[in-house]
Amino acid sequence: MTELKSAPHGEEANAATHFSVHESSSYEIGQSRKLTTKRGLSNRHAQFIALGGSIGTGLFVSSGATLAKGGPAFLVGSYTVMSVLIYMILTAVTEIATYLPVPGGTMNYYGGRYVSSSLGFMMGWLYFYSFAIFVPFELTASALVINYWNPPVNDAVWITIMLVLIIVLNCLPVKFYGETEFWFAGIKVITIIGLLILSFILFWGGGPEQHGILGFHYWKDPGAAKTMILGGDTGRFIAALATLISCVLPFTFAPEMIVVTAGEIRAPRKTLPKVARNFFWRLIVFYIGGTIAISVICPSDDLALTTGGKGAGSSPWVVGVRNAGIHGLDSVINAAVVTAALSAGNSFLYLASRSIYSMALEGNAPRIFSRCTQGGVPIYAVLASSTFALLAYMNINESAADAFNWLLNLVNTGGFISWVCFENSLEDALEHGPFNYVVVALKNLPDVYSIPDIIQLAITPDYTSIVLIQNGIGIEQPILDAFPSNIVLSGVTMIGSEQNGTHILHNDPDILYIGPFWNSALPREDQETSCQRFAEMYRLGGAESHVPDDITYHRWRKLVWNASFNSVCASTHLDSGTIQYTGAAEALIIPAMNDVVAIAKAAGYELPTDIQEKMMAFTPKDAYLKPSMQVDAMKGRPMEIEVILGAALKVATEKEVEVKILRVLYDLLKTRQWAIVNSKN
After folding, report:
1. Which of 368, 425, 435, 479 has the fewest CB atoms within 10 Å, counting from its CB?
2. Burial letters for 401-420: b for 16+ Cβ neighbours within 10 Å, e otherwise?
3. What is the per-residue pLDDT across 258-296, written as a single tens digit (0 to 9) for each?
4. pTM value?
5. Which stretches make up the Ketopantoate reductase N-terminal domain (predicted)?
6. What is the Cα gyration radius of the chain?
7. What is the dihedral of CA 434, 439, 445, 449, to 10 degrees?
8. Peptide bond preceding 620: is omega within 30 degrees of 0, i.e. cis?
9. CATH topology of 43-432 equal to that of 443-680?
10. SS3 content of the chain, % helix, strand, coil (to 5)
């Protein structure tokens, strides 16, 4: 016996046949409760992660080698060029991440979504490799920096301690990562600001061993620009190019931090633009301002920049303060560099784990990496990414360290490739444009999941019209509350269909009644136009559509059938034909219909006096309909109790309408719902 032999023209849109596709869809979303990453990062966390999350040893130490290569002019020029490039990439990143801040959404996700799956696959593994290889680099840097104090401890011990620390931090819920990075980034920011202030003082000759104003003396002696390999302009060009390449490291994958955290930030569409605006000042103050300060206090020909030893010994900041006669500050800077390296390693492990997690969600990596803990941590992704950190031990051996450097040198190139690929992804995304309409046709289960949360990623404020083709009454206001600047269209559909084995047959054309749920903040004409356009598109698809004066009237009309047949069949596990043969129609179905008619009247909607007879005629005894709530109950899925019965009973309570049967049906089905949900848990 099939679930549904035939359905009359007036059969509800929620009958088992028509909603078979939507049922599986809503079941997947609502029931799955699949453990995923969680939005545990606050605006405060996001700001500081973007501000200092990727600042490692580059700005503190590696900038000295860059200064030695090209001189102060090429150092400042290269950092300025890179800052402009990074800001351009950042604005593109923010635009697409704000539009679609999906959990697990990384640069490769957008490449796969808007360009091709092959590009997404390539970018995914490129990012994973780049992020993962940075982890042992930062761990090694931390160990080397600690050696500045010459402790009698092998580097492997420090690497092990810090490796365990960052793995533990990444295995905790993301809010702990955010909190840790907040304080780490705070230390880095305070250190850089302090060094900038100190540089300003030294500029005016405020050092203990300075005699007169220093100014831009080192731009004149030893000079603003150096040559490399060859002399003259050719040599200066080579030096400028080498400087530009060597300054990439401090910037590498800084914009990606915003994309990856977008899926775990609360209120991403409000937070991300703020983060991007603050990032601009980070580039100006920290990178451009920092390199100007370095060029002022440190000569480019100082041998300590290349032979200063371990840790902060070769840092241009340390060289500058030493030359000014300030002693003891080098240890403070060294401690800040340790913090910076540890923080960067922590961040890159986070990025690597989220990258492979994103690939697993897309099917580009083993599915096991998509599994998360109760706290929202992709634990297997974290552990897999952590294995790369073991490469840090290669740096203990000199010959193995050379091999590790070869692996690391691929990262800078990978950064440029990823940025080019992302710009291509953005162009395709802009070509597709935002959605004109988002049609919501899944089960309406407010006690199981939130419709606004599900659709919010697809909604463009002030642009997208939201079309609700769902059961129940009172379903529009929560959507309007969540999207106050968008048009909301409410639709009631009647579908004549039947299920024959695995096939769904449509006996009659679909009928859609659709109308605006009036938004007083928007022009009435715009709402009417959007509604008429959608109705016309529906007609062009071969179905019938109408735009009535008041769509809520049609919702109440449909509720007469839903609240009666749907509820009684779900409560008894009997199809509509059997219910009528047992004589329960007079005892249960008709009284339930009468309740709905009375509630609708109290709410201001006068339904036809013969509507009960019409609904019974639409549901003959030989139809053997299994409505959607009955099918859901039989298959152990949540039912649409709240929007079909709960909302009507709420109106009855407000209007003081006495109901005879709806309350009993509601209580019975809520009990059944409790059993279903708890059996799944």
Report:
1. 368
2. eeebeeebeebbebbeebbe
3. 777 776 777 777 778 887 888 888 888 888 999 999 999
4. 0.62
5. 425-517
6. 33
7. -10
8. no
9. no
10. 65, 5, 30
DSSP 416-437: HHHHHHHHHHHHHHHHH---SE
User: Do 17 and 502 contact (CB within 8 A), yes or no?
Assistant: no
Q: What is the pLDDT of residues 166-202, one digit of tens each?
A: 999 999 988 888 888 888 888 888 888 999 999 999 9
Distance CA 349, CA 183 (A): 17
User: What are the boundaries of each domain within the chain?
Assistant: 43-432, 443-680
List the one residue out of 271, 362, 288 whose CA is nearest residue 41: 271
Question: Quick one: which of 85, 108, 107, 104 has its CA closest to 94?
Answer: 107
Domain 443-680 belongs to what architecture?
A: Orthogonal Bundle (1.10)
Q: What is the pLDDT of residue 496?
A: 57
Contacts of 614 (CB under 8 A, 6+ apart): 10, 608
pLDDT digits (tens, 9 = 90+) for 618-628: 887 777 788 88
Q: Letter for the amino acid at 143?
A: A
- φ, ψ at 368 (rounded to 5°): -60, -30
- DSSP code at position 208: T
Cα–Cα distances (Å) from 171 to 59, 124, 263, 327, in that order, read 28, 22, 17, 40
Residue 138 in this model has a pLDDT that exceeds 70: yes
Query: How far apart are alpha carbons 606 and 354 in whole angstroms?
Result: 55
* Cβ neighbours of residue 351 closer than 8 Å, sequence gap 6 or more: 127, 131, 253, 256, 257, 260
Q: Tell me, what DSSP letter sits at residue 394?
A: G
What DSSP element (H or E) covers 40? none
| Domain covering 43-432, topology | Amino acid/polyamine transporter I (1.20.1740)
Rounded distance between C-alpha atoms, residue 163 and residue 158, angstroms: 8
Strand 465-469 and strand 437-440: the pairing is: parallel
- For residue 207, which phi and psi values (nearest 5 degrees)? -75, 155
Q: Do β-strands 511-516 and 503-506 pair in parallel, antiparallel, or remain unpaired?
A: unpaired
At position 366, the amino acid (one-letter code) is P
Closest CA to 14 of 468, 626, 580: 626
Q: Please calculate the CA angle 60-132-66 and round it to the nearest 5 degrees.
A: 30
Whether 175 contacts 446, CB under 8 Å: no
Record the tokens describing residue 590, joined without a space. Answer: 């008709």
Task: Name 231's Cβ contacts closer than 8 Å, sequence gap at least 6.
Answer: none
The distance in angstroms from the start CA to the end CA of the chain is 31
DSSP designation for 147: G
**Residue 499: strand, helix, or coil:** strand
CB 235, CB 63: distance < 8 Å = no
CA 121 to CA 363: how far, in whole Å? 9
Q: Where are the alpha helices (DSSP H) in 147-286?
A: 155-171, 174-203, 217-220, 232-246, 254-262, 268-282
Burial of 235 (0-12, 13-18, 19+ CB in 10 A): middle
CA dihedral over 351, 356, 362, 364, signed as positive or negative: positive
Cα→Cα distances 250→113, 185, 190, Å:
29, 15, 18
Burial zone of 126 (CB within 10 Å; 0-12 exposed, 13-18 middle, 19+ buried): buried
Q: Are 140 and 160 in contact (CB under 8 A)?
A: no
